[in-house]
Amino acid sequence: MKIGILTYHACFNYGACLQAYALQQTIKKKCNDCKIIDYQSKKLIDINHPFCKVPKHPKELIKNLTRLPYYSQLMKRKTLFEDFINHTLDVSQRCSTDEEVRNECEKYDCIVCGSDQTWNLDPSIRYETPLYYLNFPKKQRRITYATSFGSWVKDFYTREKEIMPWIKEFDKLSMREESGVELLRSKGLECEWVLDPTLLLRSEDYDKIAVSRIISEPYVLLFSWNGAHEAVAIAKAAAAKLGCKAYYIVPPPRAMFCGIKRKLDVGPKEFLSLVKHASFIVTNSFHGTVFSTIYRKPFISAIYGNVDARRASLMKQFGLEDHLMSPGNIDFEKIFNTDFGKVEERLKPLREYSLSYLYNALKND
Predict the structure, then answer these.
(1) What's the pLDDT tens digit per position in 66-78?
(2) Together in a domain, 184 and 279
(3) What's the total number of domains in the chain?
(4) In the chain, which residue ranges form alpha helices assigned H by DSSP?
């Protein structure tokens, strides 16, 4: 059987690249003939570039100006991501249009959609597209693995008539969040709740591709895509508690004057190393939370107000709801006393169930 994976694999996002890697490696254990369909639209390539080539809006000009002092680090970051996508992932020939993706899909006996927020059609994502619903005539087996609506699950109804016929063409359905599972089941569809593919591998699997230690001294790692003030505040508190520096790995203009040193020449392999060797991690990212758990690091998943559905679902699976903290209720003693053995006890049956779903779904009925 020849298997193609259609997912977010080529955006310069640590979680996106690593979930694609994990899913492909997991499938290759049973079927080595597996490619990630290398869909990279012009829009995505433009978004990936660290600088706006022709700034048209004040925000784009601010982005360029705030990033200029980090030019060399950001260009190295770009190279590291491109190297990972082109050489660590096993990708097909490049597809830049919907038509090229449709033609590429015809080469496979089965298409796996997911993981990540491939079914999130919120325009704010900027590279969202119904193509990930396989919105073209069916010529092969189709399954999803841990795909996600993200926060768009609440707006699903706005395009339900358009996308439900495509969803019904899938032979097997699974979602990453409980909210997505409940939605599809409410429409009369069978759907399973499975783990994000990054959780199908273990730390020793990621160690095979992680680079050597980058920062020699103890450090707190801050990973917050939006530079949320609560995450910054907790990172500063953790650094003060441990008597070490904090490093922030997301480019400006987010949290431009947060007072935390930036480390930006970081690709997916470097990200794994930074997580592995961190003394403490503060994040409000789904995959930041995942890899903190995989590497059994003391971490806080920062919140302000209501937690997003993705992390709420994840922490429920882990039994780590008490790691969701705001600056006003930090409990370092609780964090440092986390029993990751109990977390693994919860993860083991979920991992086995998810693997069973995936391998059975790949088979023709």
Answers:
(1) 999 999 999 999 9
(2) no
(3) 2
(4) 14-28, 42-48, 58-67, 71-83, 98-105, 160-167, 178-186, 203-207, 229-242, 268-277, 286-294, 309-318, 332-336, 340-362
